[in-house]
Specification:
This protein is α/β, with parallel strands linked by helices and about 290 residues long. The chain has 2 domains: about 240 residues, Vaccinia Virus protein VP39 (Rossmann fold); about 35 residues, no CATH class. About 45% of the residues lie in helices and about 15% in strands. The chain contains 13 helices and 9 strands. The strands form 2 sheets. A 7-stranded mixed beta sheet has the order 3-2-1-4-5-9-8, sandwiched between helices. A two-stranded antiparallel sheet has the order 6-7. Helix 1 crosses helix 2 and helix 3 packs parallel to helix 4. The longest helix has 14 residues. It is globular and about 55 Å long. The model has no long low-confidence stretch (mean pLDDT about 90).
Length: about 290
């Protein structure tokens, strides 16, 4: 079992963040969803596990940029795993909390250099700066995800990897924030009326959600000259990235039955499925770029 490398929040910080989330997601999240968000994205075990997997295969002096770093969970865990990680975040509140967490973990580090305030569409870094760039549940919140992907590829070293995870809004699924049944590419006007009928506040949809799709992301990366593969396959090799205990047990049985090659083939076939529920991509920048 991996050691827990998370930088825990203080009680005061948790209280501040909870109040901030309640205001930010008023009419979107209920109390249970706020608690889940705190667990999954603020004090994130999954971020620590992903950082551990990346850290295990990282070379010395590996540099990572997390775009849309939020409250810094992934960057802080990466740094604990020996990766030279920095985060970029547009929201001042999140940047300030991330810097406070870093100050406790690394008192001698330059918090303003490691957690920077900025726009993913205009990265303040030179070409070929990072070995890894991550966009974890970010693209659905930017108006122009193609520009953000172009910037991410630009700052990658040739041969570097880009991790992308976000909802696929061409899928039949629950909306990732409101957690209600959602139509593929649901027109915003109709979707707003639908949310009002459910007693929900549509302003978050109107102002902070921008539809991205699996095909759109893959085609953009192809145009940028990056070679894309499925991030889902990484979960087969690293079951600690699977959150469901039931899914872990099933995977263990499949492994014992020597069925993993079949599952990998199925995942490969599903990778370009326009209706899969989420975009889960690892893209590699071509060495010739």
């Amino acid at each position: 079992m991996r050691a827990d490398h998370r930088v825990k929040l203080t009680a005061d910080e948790l209280s501040l963040i909870e109040a901030h989330l309640c205001e930010q997601y008023r009419g979107v999240f209920d109390g249970k969803m706020i608690e889940a968000h705190l667990h999954e994205f603020v004090e994130s075990t999954m971020a620590d596990r992903l950082a551990g997997v990346i850290g295990d295969s990282a070379q010395p002096n590996t540099k990572l940029l997390d775009i849309g770093a939020g409250y810094g969970a992934f960057v802080l865990s990466c740094r604990k795993h020996g990766i030279k990680a920095i985060g970029l975040e547009l929201a001042s509140f999140e940047v300030d909390l991330s810097r406070k967490r870093l100050a406790r973990a690394e008192p001698d580090s330059d918090a303003s250099a490691i957690f920077q305030k900025g726009d993913g569409g205009q990265l303040p870094f030179a070409d070929n700066t990072f070995h890894i760039v991550s966009l974890l549940n970010v693209l659905e919140h930017v108006p122009d995800y193609e520009t953000v992907l172009a910037e991410a590829v630009r700052v990658l070293h040739p041969g570097g990897r880009l991790f992308v995870v976000c909802p696929n809004y061409a899928a039949w699924r629950k909306e990732a924030h409101y957690h209600v049944p959602w139509l593929p590419l649901f027109p915003k006007g109709l979707a707003s009326a639908y949310l009002r009928l459910l007693g929900r506040n549509p302003s978050f949809l109107q102002n902070h959600i921008h539809y991205c799709t699996n095909w759109g992301v893959l085609k953009t990366l192809e145009r940028l000259g990056a070679r894309s593969t499925s991030l889902d396959g990484m979960r087969l090799e690293h079951p600690e990235l699977i959150s469901s205990d039931r899914a872990k047990r099933v995977l263990s049985l499949l492994r014992k039955a020597h069925m993993l090659p079949v599952i990998k083939g199925m995942l490969a076939m599903n990778f370009r499925n326009p209706f899969k529920s989420a975009v889960t991509v690892v893209a590699e920048k071509k060495v010739s770029q």
